[in-house]
Batch of 2 targets.
Target 1
Amino acid sequence: MTRSEFDDIRAYIAAEATRAGDLVEVARTLLDDLEHARMREATLRAYYLRLLTAARATVAAEAAGAPEPLTFLKDELAKRGQMPEGKQVNQILSDARTAEALVAALEQQPMRTLAPTGRGRRCAGVSRTLPR
């Protein structure tokens, strides 16, 4: 969900005319979104683990003197439809050089952080105090 969607939900919950049934529906929607995000995260973690395993096996195969050390990595990329072809080759190499330069620049000049203002963090959405 986007930040504006969260702000919309906060405003909706804070509205005086909100009924309990409406809040239950919002809660269900949020739970569905959370479950979807967890599934996406699990899928991405699995893809990452497979790619990392293939990369490590490729380096190990090269160190062991295997005749085709790139086999593991090529196989994993092919399974995901990520094998570079034709004009993509030069674009991928250019992107890699650019990314390498950006990372090097970031490492030389770390990002500045804002000094604490003394105030606590607060939500930028609609605010409302609860009765005591």
Target 2
Amino acid sequence: MVTLGVGVLFTLSFLCFALIATAFGTPYFLAVVWAIAGIWLIVSLAAFFTMRAQLRGANHFGSLQSELREDLKAIKEAL
């Protein structure tokens, strides 16, 4: 899945380079560059909020907390 995501991002990047190269020397060059930057910003924000929604409520450090509790218990028993 990660490989597919990386491949899609590279494809989109080269598509953007092609659009910029096509618009080079035309009166629309700056508009194309800013439009591409805006689209990438929207894509990045959408990815951020999607990941944030998927990770909401997850206990990321649950196993670490249980290990630390067990370690503290073992230390107290040893003392």
